[in-house]
Specification:
Layout lengths: L3 E13 L12 E13 L11 H15 L2 E2 L13 H15 L5 E11 L2 E5 L10
Length: 132
């Protein structure tokens, strides 16, 4: 079965503190985050597209906009969940999954860059998913 992987990049700036962290990151600090949103499709539409890049970019920007210029610890779900890069990436993945409404397309991974040299990639095992 064919598989098409599409990626878009967006960014946001925010601040956070890591609760109970034994180091400097327990203090208030900020990042200029980059988000790489990856979607997979198994089919193309009549135009020969899996899903319009404009659709993916719009969703990624909309979700990133919820975090942009915010103190993450004040936002749901990060009031209780530590706003680590891992937790932010997982949250972004689930937000995008809930909003992506395209047949035969699914979010496959979110890569969240905390700095130019450090990132986390979040995905979920879809081996049982035959919807594509």
């Amino acid at each position: 079965m064919p598989k098409y992987t599409l990626k878009v990049l967006t960014d946001f700036a925010s601040a956070h503190t890591l609760r109970d962290y034994p180091g400097d990151c327990a203090r208030l600090h900020g990042h200029n985050w980059k988000v790489e949103a990856e979607v997979e499709a198994s089919q193309l539409d009549a135009l020969g597209m899996a899903v319009d890049f404009k659709t993916i970019k719009g969703l990624a920007r909309e979700i990133a906009g919820q975090l942009d210029h915010q103190y993450l610890n004040d936002l749901e779900p990060f009031r209780d969940l530590n706003p680590t890069a891992e937790n932010i990436a997982a949250w972004f993945f689930h937000e995008m999954t809930a909003r992506l409404d395209a047949p035969h397309v699914r979010v496959s991974a979110i890569t969240l860059w905390e700095t130019e040299r450090a990132c986390v990639r979040y995905s979920e095992d879809q081996s049982k998913d035959s919807a594509l």
